[in-house]
Amino acid sequence: MVFEFEKPVTELENKIKELEKYAHKNKLDLTTEISFLERKVKDKKEEVYSQLTPWQRVEIARYIKRPTSKEYIAALFDEFIEFKGDRAYSDDNAIIGGIAMFRGRPVTVIGNQRGMDTKDNIARNFGMAHPDGYRKALRLMKQAEKFNRPVICFIDTKGAYPGKAAEERGQSESIARNLVEMAGLTVPVISIVIGEGGSGGALALGVCNKLYMLENATYSVISPEGAASILFKDASLKEIAAESLKITAADLLELGVSDGTIVEPAGGAHHDKTFVFNETDKVLQDALAELVPMDGDALVDQRYDKYMAIGQFSE
Description:
Pathway: Lipid metabolism; malonyl-CoA biosynthesis; malonyl-CoA from acetyl-CoA: step 1/1. By secondary structure, the chain is an alpha/beta fold.
């Protein structure tokens, strides 16, 4: 898939491939011409990717080829053991979690898991969790607190599942319970928005000491389409809504919601997953180095101060 805004770059890259093929077939030296086009590609990438609109970043955040929580866990952690079930109703495939080692330190890892293809998306309900998923996440967080393990969360969901069965089993209560319990955890909590952070479904893993966002991730109380439907009575005005919502990593860093932005390669994390994993690894190391020495009371106070400061302004 090529995004509309990427077409100028793709056209130049295709021309380079054609020239290389032609040169090889006819045994010609077209090094000068190819080098010229390669410089143009580099310049065009810088131009295109430095001017992305909020809606274009939403498109990148939702892209199915972006690395998922499972991929981050496999790349960053050793000896991961997945735990299943909420000990009340069922196991929810839209949230995965367990214990692992991060650079020799035991940690608890939890993440929204969307599908990597159509079949997987159906199995994981497109990353939209039922109450069972949030209760599983809370069970793992409380276990982490008991054994003094830092909690690391990866956020990537359109939102909590809004279906009838989820509401019957207490969707809103399960999210609210997570917010309350996470606010009082006496171990470090680090959350990273790796894709789309939508509504309460994202916030249920987002009450933390440190919140980081990938450069093209989004974090919002509602999708741009939903906001446009409510505010403008027209979902097609999603681009205007995305601009107004201030949902990008740069916006949320400026507003004090995010504590830092994790750089992505030009065009998005899917273009170079290893680069993104390495950048995330550095952020986690720095965050743990700051938070682990703090005692439980200090961690709770720091978390409280962080959220009380959001929304403050002066004129």
